[in-house]
Amino acid sequence: MFSIWTIIFLLFGFFLLIKSADYLIDGAAGLAKQAKIPKIVIGLSLVAFGTSAPEFTVSLISAVQGSSDIGLGNVIGSNIANIALVLAVAAMFKNVPVTKSTLTRGIPLSFLAMFALLVLGYDVWFHGADVGQNFLTLGDGLIFLSFFIIFVYYVYGDLKSTQIQEEEIKRIERKWYQKKWWYLALLVGGGLLGLIIGGKLIVDNAVITANFFGVSEALIGLTIIAMGTSLPELAIVVVAAMKHENDLAVGSIIGSSIFNIFLVL
User: What is the tens place of the pLDDT at every residue in 176-197?
Assistant: First the structure.
């Protein structure tokens, strides 16, 4: 039943989700460094999973619990929020550069992701299915994963050819390299547990909210949950803009949007 506690649990779920993703990435990066995993792999993991872990967790839990509309709405709404809100805020602080690789590979890949979702998801129009029979199937998921492999190759190439990510990797190394392995493992385990608990709190209370107000779960996913799970991207872009280090703002936002469709979905 909807009450003030529903809102409190929803907000706490967002807080737990975002902080847990932070701890998980920090712990994993520290363990990777201690295991002498190449910097390029650490950098790739930071780019790929750093800001999309909340969307991934919420979408996975909602699908398992039979509320897949929340997961789909979350992915689409988060992508809209990334571009129409996060980049808008960044541009208000300072002119945001758009790198050549973003123009030639990132943006075309993002269009490809949206077009693939439209074609594979709109079965009624493109595949002659009955009205109301639009589904993303196992085969669609395998197609998305194939595109994701191409995306990973693209990110790998960019990280290998640029020094911009080096500062972030060194920051992680300074912060966690001297920590004990068991402490880092505890961060990873606690981060995973926090992601699961936070994601479940969000999904459960989002369903209650949707039922109370008589709106679809997809609408809740498109709005409230999408904005909540876009907070990591917003925080990163605002801080980068304030420090005048927003060279990769557009690229990271576009990359997060591609990641949401090709892997999260």
Answer: 555 677 888 888 889 889 988 9
Please write the tens of the pLDDT for every residue from 79-88: 999 888 888 8
pTM (2 d.p.): 0.78
Residue 99 near residue 248, CB atoms below 8 Å: yes
Helix, coil or strand: residue 37 = coil
Q: Which of 76, 152, 58 is closest to 114 using CA atoms?
A: 76
Question: Using an 8 Å Cβ cutoff, are 59 and 264 in contact?
Answer: yes
- Helix H segments across the chain? 4-34, 39-49, 53-64, 68-81, 87-93, 100-101, 107-121, 123-126, 138-161, 164-176, 181-213, 217-220, 226-229, 231-242, 249-259
Residue 228's closest CA among 199, 204, 261? 199
Give the amino acid at 132.
G
The amino acid at residue 151 is F
Please tell me the distance from the alpha carbon of residue 79 to that of residue 101, in angstroms, as a whole number.
Answer: 20
Candidates 134, 141, 83, 88; CA nearest to 111 is 83
What's 49-85 look like in SS3? HCCCHHHHHHHHHHHHCCCHHHHHHHHHHHHHHHHHH
